[in-house]
Amino acid sequence: MTVAYVVKPHGIKGEVLVQPTLPTARESFVIEPIFLRKGPHMIPTRIESFRPHGDRYLLRLQGINDRTEAERLRGYALEVAREDLPPLPEDTYYVEDMIGCRVIDEDGQQQGEVIDVMRTSGVDVLVVASPDGKWMLPAAKDYMGAIDLPGRVLRVSIPEGLRDLHVN
Asked: What would you report as the CA-atom Rg of the chain, rounded to the nearest whole angstrom?
């Protein structure tokens, strides 16, 4: 599972700035093995150190000793095996687990099915497929009601006009 994305190099000694994707990203940085992935390419690595940097983290990765080496990692995902992830706090979910869930609005009407997740620098966005096309739903607490992952159902509040914003 992806725990962070490499945003860019930081400084001249090989550190990279990463954007976490999970609420447990900090705890995930100590898991071994951890992998760098870009497309089909998986590279095992080790995080030698990490520290917070605003809402992101600065990481020093094994074998990355200068800015040029760090630059090559831009856009890579940091991944760990799902079974190695720490338990989530109550009422917290991995957004990837919502893929395949039916989306039910406040009136009990099915509005589609989650088919993908778009990562943003802010709130993750669920891509929902419906007979009218694909539309986006922010995975924010303001919109999410009851989440029933075993039953594969998300009960949501859909602001007026949101379904009119279709994606290709």
From this structure: 18
Are 8 and 16 contacting, i.e. CB atoms less than 8 angstroms apart?
yes
95-167: CATH architecture = Roll (2.30)
How far are the Cα atoms of 7, 14, 69, 124 from residue 65, in angstroms, in the given order?
Answer: 17, 4, 7, 32
Q: Looking at the structure, give the CATH architecture of the domain made up of residues 2-84.
A: Beta Barrel (2.40)
In this predicted model, what pLDDT tens digit does every residue of 77-132 receive, in sequence order? 999 998 998 888 888 888 888 999 999 999 999 999 999 998 776 788 899 999 88
Domain ranges of the chain: 2-84, 95-167
Identify the three-state secondary structure at position 152: coil
The SS3 of residue 150 is: coil
